[in-house]
Amino acid sequence: MVLAAVGQLCSTASLAANLAQCQTLVRKAAAAGAKALFLPEASDYIGSSPAETISLARSVQDSEFVLGLQKEARLAKLHINVGIHEPASNNRTKNTLIWIDDKGSIIQRYQKVHLFDVDIKGGPVLKESASVEKGMEILPPFETPIGRVGLSICFDLRFPELSLALRRQDAQIIAYPSAFTVPTGRAHWETLLRARAIETQSYVIAAAQAGPHNEKRISYGHSLIVNPWGEVVASLGDEYEEPQIAVADIDLELLAKVRREMPLLRRTDIYPQV
What we know:
Layout: E1 2-8, H1 15-32, E2 36-38, H2 50-56, H3 64-76, E3 79-88, E4 92-100, E5 106-111, E6 117-119, E7 125-127, E8 132-133, E9 142-144, E10 147-151, H4 160-168, E11 173-175, H5 182-200, E12 203-206, E13 210-212, E14 218-220, E15 224-226, E16 232-235, E17 244-250, H6 252-261
Parallel strand pairs: 1-2, 2-3, 4-8, 10-11, 11-12
Antiparallel strand pairs: 1-17, 3-4, 4-5, 6-7, 9-10, 12-15, 13-14, 15-16
Helix pairs in contact: 1-3
């Protein structure tokens, strides 16, 4: 077994302040003996408007946030999965998830494919597609010190086709870094995460933003790690006072046992393979 850490923070429009929060999480994860730290969607910043979100986007080569985390990964000898923004064409940004290895190199990059457009009665109205370029491919799972990881982001959680495609490519861990709203979080967050874990027989690691980012936006929190049997093995709350981590052992023997004892043999003769 090997230890994974899930981190929780409250990003604002200040990249420097957000980097400081993540540096705290890196040090907590390293002190706990984790081999990989999973950080939320948009850890680099959360703007108060689409215009601010676009204006703050930087390439990874020019981002003080990304460069700072690469240095932390190298010093701590820790793998880091973190959600960031990158510039895109047509005055948009990319909502991306990068994997930084323990040498400080960016070795994987996933771009969010399902964008969050909602109008909740009595709640937030958000249209991510107005300022964000959608991704066009599923990133194949890749080897890490804690197992084979498949990447997705937040709203992707609502589409089991993506997690099933990752499972078909032998993902053992699926990441869902998020910034869930409070109404949708209360209604669906844990239910969806446990469902994705059960139906793919995989570990699910969901790092979440928590608390008020600005006067317009609050995130639900409740970062979780779920095992392949659907049990929550690590969790955090919803109140934000300081950056927090939770840790859990990634037991690949348990994963193999679940898959061996309850094989999910899909009937692709009567419905399409995802």
